[in-house]
Amino acid sequence: MPDALITRTPSAYDYPLLIKNLLFCPVVDAPQQEIVYRSHRFTYRDLRQRVACLANALTSLGVKRGDTVAVMDWDSHRYLECFFAVPMIGAVLHTINVRLSPEQILYTIDHAEDDVLLVNSEFLPILEQIRGRMDTVKSFVLLNDEPTVPESHIPFSGEYEALLAAASDQFNFADFDENTRATTFYTTGTTGMPKGVYFSHRQLVLHTMGVMSVLGSAVGQGNFHRQDVYMPITPMFHVHAWGLPYVATMLGVKQVYPGRYLPDHLLELIDREKVTFSHCVPTILHMLLKHPHAGRMDLSGWKVIIGGAAMSRALCLDAMQRGIDLFTGYGMSETCPILTISHLTPDMLELSAEEQAVIRCKTGCSLPLVDLKIVDSARQEQARDGKSAGEIVVRAPWLTQGYLKDHKASERLWEGGYLHTGDVAVRDELGYVKITDRTKDVLKVSGEWVSSLELEDIIAHHPGVAEVAVIGQPDEKWGERPLALVVAKPDNAVTEKELTHLVREYADKGVVTKQVVLLKVKLVEAIDKTSVGKVNKVALREKYL
After folding, report:
1. pLDDT tens, 226-275?
2. E-only strand ranges, 201-351
3. Residues 29 and 161 in one domain
4. Which residues are identified as catalytic?
């Protein structure tokens, strides 16, 4: 028998999965719900109108379908508006990682072929350094939180609020192919410049639905619903703030955007706006809980997804003692990102705090539509016994199709038809995954990737260094800190302080990310090697960690 195909009625609507459709229900069902940023308070009805104004402002600047609009901003209502308006007109939103070095930012702007750049006034010094070398940007728009316009040599086409005020609040957002690219951002790795990761409308909508289904179906713990108040504490420039702003908007919840992540300001917002749902890396949570103001606050009822780096049991227990509902989420830049959530069953909630913390710190169980496997080097799936380790490989409808303009790296990423995460893990009989290692030697410091090879290259250039190897040292506050093991040349008086200062100079010049200032240096007599003469980082970790 032939396959039974659906016959489309000529007058039927072929509903594309476009980002614009995430706005429909909130605007209709919760038009007066609030979106908060600094002194600004907008309703969802305002959001819909402002998205239309931004679309008109961008098209008046010449933005057309397929063009790229880049944003350099802190977490704000403006960023949320860009999350919708830019892809809704068929353009691509490039969320620039403002924590990269100026040279890396320049690379991503040119590589993404940005046409328009929206920039917060705080980042003008960076832009002034590189503006003469940007090849594709035609227009600049100022994002300004201050009452006065800063002095700058940048030829701005206008200021964001002024452009929106002059634009119509009506825009006909046409349908187009749901596989159209919607966003691009850049992720750093072990070597070379950052890689461009991209996602389509269809992928972002399906990720939103998948995350909403798993968070909305949770019972008693870790759920996200319409009565929540949402505030992201992971940057909107990084994997769309884990995709949660789209989920929050589709649910129609109150949203609070904090701008810069200053601990006293974040705690004030949590208290004043009654925030009940957030997500962050362990470093941020550690910083908040150790802040003097935290001791005077009631944080019970605050639900927090922890990701980006491993969460320690000590941090988890500290948060639980404060009444915080803390649990792990896992994913990576290439996966949009959420693949797993570590929810607790009702039975698990009856366990002791110490036993719960073990589960809350695990990587968790797969989301609906996520085909996650743990495989050995022969790509055979490992037993679900909590002991048999292998690499996490995955399929899901929201995974990136590859790296922008990098066919070889894309093929490696998807070798064998599954996306390779590079993370080594085990899975127990209940389906809970726990990451145990990484296949690459990249470090994750305060939620940011730091290349061990890049650091080794800098230190090796010192005339007094004979050998160097950089490994990650677990750290309660930062997740990891780079530890450089250095063999000095004979009769050379190189010091640990001197090498630390050398790396800091590179960071100050913008050659490498500023996270490397957390580097520790240890002078050693020799560095362990494998049988073929390569640096044995496994042995080094066992010896020095």
Report:
1. 999 999 999 999 999 999 999 999 999 999 999 999 999 999 999 999 99
2. 229-230, 254-257, 277-280, 303-306, 325-331, 338-341
3. yes
4. 187, 334, 444, 449
